[in-house]
Amino acid sequence: MSSAHKSDKKQDSGDGQEALDAYLRLLESKGADSEVLALRRRVLSRLNLIMRGQPRTTTIYRSAVDALLSLCLPEDRPGAMTAAREYYYFWIGDVKKVTEMNARSGFTTRHVRLPVLSSFDDLQQSMQQAGYQQFPPSLELYLGQLYELGSDEVVLGERGALLKPLLFLLHDQAHHPDSYRMAVDAMLLHLADSEAKESFLSIAREFFYYWLSFPDADIRGQFGVQSA
Fold this sequence. Notes:
This protein is mainly α. It has eleven helices and no strands. The chain is globular, with a radius of gyration of 19 Å.
């Protein structure tokens, strides 16, 4: 192996560590505690190892993330997926995108463990078995606004069917944007079809501000602190 090739391999490995260190420094500056930082370092170090020496392409990254998730416990997969999504722009060196994400608070500093079942049907069944029906006012307000804008019953039913399991995942979690982001990632792990994932992401982005602004009555008193 030539010295140039050796240098390239070393640079590949070093860049991964450099990117990871930069990501963790950002999280620390935003208030992430030592437990969250240690967990992210462990998960993303494994991801770097999977990608070591590979070209920095979206295809390589997605394949590596799939491999990473297969190695995680089900309840740790949403957190690993969130970390990998945030880390991607550090890994490819897209400083502009990192800056944009940071400006709109696009990074999570908390870790949320959420259940991941075998399928979306299993998640719906789990919600039904738990008897979960106490949805926050944000759901009715969001669907009501869509109705006022002309959406028909089919559209409202489809959106409600996707948002109710999301709210089921969120119902025991802190009312905080980090919880929402990780619950969205957990939902994506339950959806097998790429078109369904894209549709859900679009709906989740729309619904986020309703969810954030109109929590259940029992947490409105502390809402300002939790959502800051």
